[in-house]
Each structure stands twice: as C-alpha cells, then as structure tokens.
Amino acid sequence: MSKNQLSILALLMVLFSVFSCKNEVLPKPASYLRLDYPEAKYANFESKCPFTFEMNSDAIIKGEKDCGFTITYPKMKATIYLTYKPVNKDINKLLRDAQKLTYEHVIKADDILEQPFLNHTKKVYGMFYQVDGNAATNSQFYVTDSVKHFVTGSVYFYAKPNYDSIMPAASYVRNDMQRLMETLKWK
C-alpha cells in the first residue's frame, strides 16, 4: 500500500470511530415524588371545653388557653389551629371575622370553594373553605350552634406555599379537618 492509501485508510478509521461511538441524548421521563401517608385512624377527643370531636390518632394535640388547640402533624410540617369563642349576642361579628380570615387569602388563591355544613340533630352549622393555590392556608372552617358556641379551624404548613408540592399533605390534612368538623358535638 502506498503512503497515500495508508493516509486515507487512517483518516477513514478515525472518522468511523468518531461518528460511530456517539451517545444518543434521550430526554428523561417525567417523575413525581410519591408521598404515602398511613390510613387515618380517628379517636374521640374530650376535654373540659364545651365540645368534643374526632381527630387523627397520628396527630399531636396541645391545649391552649380558652379552649383553643393546636393539632400538629410533624411528618408533614402542618398544624391545625382551633379557636373557641363563646357567642355573646355577637354571632354576626364572629361570622364576619371567620369569613374575612378566609378571604384575606384571595390574593394568592386560585379558587376558594365554600362547602356549607348543617347537622340539625347535633345543632352544628358551619362552612368549610378549600383554598386552592399558593395561599398560606389551604383549608379553613367554622362551626357554631348560633347561640352559645363558635369554633374556627385553619391549617398552616411550615413550608413555602407551593400548592403543587404540598398538595398530597394538604389533601390528607383537609380530610382530617372535615372529619373534625363533621364529628364536632356540643356538650
């Protein structure tokens, strides 16, 4: 073989090795964080306060003054704040304050769904609010008997409000809040 033929052969082998060994770039498939929470088991909660309710047995409840409570979910970095106020002929003010608290989040919320709650046999009436979007709270409620008792509840997460990221935890806690509201009884 001549020098010219050897040069062409070497050039072809180099070109062949460069172009034959390329890595194909493939897009990564979409992946999602899977958050599994245990099935909720509920237990009745009683105290000296004028109401009882069922709560998730995995949550930790702490009593505050004047029959207010904090129910914490350490694994989810979430807390439900319950507040009790006696009705002293000021039911309209209490209702306005509860609704105002919810609608302060309208700036960041995509939507606020209102779900009325009526239990005539237990004399428990109220409203459950589901706040969708990057608001500070995702769920709130109030219940009353319209004569003596008024209870409000709201959940807050100790994380930047990114609804897509906390949606599984928010849904889990929202179900617990609805159960709490629906099982609340006056003493």
Write structural notes for this entry:
The strands form two sheets. The chain has a seven-stranded antiparallel beta sheet with strand order 3-4-5-9-8-7-6, sandwiched between helices. Strands 1-2-10 form a three-stranded antiparallel beta sheet. The model has no long low-confidence stretch (mean pLDDT 86). Helix content is 28%, strand content 35%. With 187 residues, the protein is α+β, with helices and mostly antiparallel strands. It has helices at 3-20, 91-103, 163-183; strands at 42-45, 51-56, 60-63, 69-73, 78-86, 109-119, 124-133, 139-144, 149-157, 185-186. The termini are far apart. It is elongated. The protein contains three helices and ten strands, in the order H-E-E-E-E-E-H-E-E-E-E-H-E.
| Helical segment count | 3
Q: What is the helix content?
A: 25-40%
Helix vs. strand class: alpha+beta
Shape: elongated
Number of strands: 10
| Largest sheet report | 7 strands, antiparallel
**Rounded mean pLDDT score:** 86
C-alpha-based Rg, rounded:
29 Å
Order of helices and strands: HEEEEEHEEEEHE
The separation of the N and C termini measures: 106 Å
Q: How are the strands of the largest sheet arranged?
A: 3-4-5-9-8-7-6
Please indicate the percent range of residues in DSSP E strands (runs of 2 or more). Answer: 35-45%
Low-confidence stretches: none
Quick take:
By secondary structure, this protein is of the alpha+beta class.
Task: Please tag this protein with its features.
alpha+beta; 3 helices; 10 strands; 187 residues; elongated; single chain; 3-stranded antiparallel sheet; 7-stranded antiparallel sheet
